Each structure stands twice: as structure tokens, then as C-alpha cells.
Amino acid sequence: NNIFYIIAAVSSLLLLVGIKTFKDLKESSEFIVEEKVTKLSQDFEGRLLDIEKKAKERFKLIIRNQENIEQSQKINSLWKRAEIEDNFEEKLNIYDEILKINANDVETLAYKADVLLDMDEARWALSLCNQAIEIDNEYGLSYWQRACANAQLNNIDSAIEDIKLALEITPSLQDELENESSFKSLHKNEFFKKIIS
Questions:
Q1: Rounded to whole angstroms, how far apart are CA atoms 109 and 128?
Q2: Is residue 103 packed enough to be buried (19+ CB in 10 Å), middle (13-18) or exposed (0-12)?
Q3: What is the per-residue pLDDT across 8-54, written as a single tens digit (0 to 9) for each?
Q4: Which DSSP letter does residue 95 get?
């Protein structure tokens, strides 16, 4: 009998310890699973945030590119209008519209100066050319227009210097030297004669 009681007691004790161990095992496995799920969730959330950030950046880039394309198309359309326009005032208005879109467009500043020279507004044209040269001192037409303005204002030495600079940057302007009406006052100048030849 005693052996039976000892076996029953030990079995009960083992059963209790086993249940407790099983309970601990269950709790620890739940904890491990919960910890792994939390880590995976955080990883996934981080990746999602990264994807969302990249998507927002791409969306902004697409919007910016679309705006640039629209501006380019608008500027192109305005240039086409300016080419066919005969009225000087209207041409100036068109160039002003382009400059509202891009205030640093040196080509537009130079062409606006050209129109102003045709309207005998040499001082205003000179100011625009100086502004264009400040923005980009490698655009030959700005120096050319400034030379025209200086020639009309009888600033002969400045006109000659600007012609030299314009020709250094844009040698193809050499063909226009003799035909440029603003340079008529320079035709007797020795330096101008050397430049032509």
C-alpha cells in the first residue's frame, strides 16, 4: 500500500510540476511569438513609412516636372507669338510675360533690349543688357545688344569693347557687323574697321 501511495504522490507531484512547466512553456512561447510579431510589425511599419516617403518625393518630383513642362510650353508659345508680332509695344508685353515666368531668362532680356533699341530707348536697353550680363556673362547676344545701345548713346569705346566680347563668345555674329544699323556711327572708327576685316 505504501508503495502505491508513494507512486500516486510522486505522480501527482510530477503532474503538478509538469502542468506548471507546461504553463510556463506556453507563456514563454506566447511571449516569444508576441515579441517576434511586434518586431516584424515594426519592421513592416518602417518599410511602409520608407515607401510612403519615397512615393511622396516621387509625386512631388512628378508635379514639379509637370509644372516645368507647362512653363516651357507656355514660354515656347509666347516666343512664337513674339516672332510674328510686328507691334513693338505688344512684343514688349510678350517678353514681359516670359520674364514673369522666368525673371533670369537672359535671351528674353537681350531680345527685349533689341526691341527697345528699335524704339530708340537705348538707355533702357543698356540697363537690360547689364542685367542679362550679370545673370550670364557667357551669352554673346547680351554684349552685342549692349554694344548697340552704347553705339546709339555715342559710347564708342564701350561699344567696341562689347563687340569684341560678343564676337569672342559668339563668332557667328561677325556676319552681322556691317548690317547692324546701330553700328553706323562706328563705320569710320579705326578699331571697328579692324574688327570688320
A1: 6
A2: exposed
A3: 777 776 665 555 555 655 666 677 777 888 888 888 888 889 999 99
A4: H
C-alpha cell of residue 74: 507656355
DSSP 8-state symbol, 155: -
Q: Are 189 and 156 in contact (CB under 8 A)?
A: yes
Q: What is the distance between the alpha carbons of residues 26 and 55, in angstroms, rounded to a whole number?
A: 42
Q: How far apart are CA 136 and CA 159, in angstroms?
A: 19
Side chain identity at 100, as an amino acid letter?
K
Instruction: Encode pLDDT of 62-78 as tens digits.
Output: 999 999 899 999 999 99
DSSP state of 113: H
The answer to whether 143 and 169 have CB atoms below 8 angstroms apart is yes
- The DSSP element (H or E) to which 139 belongs, if any, is none
Q: Please state whether the predicted TM-score (pTM) of the whole model is above 0.85.
A: no
In angstroms, the CA 110 to CA 142 distance is 5
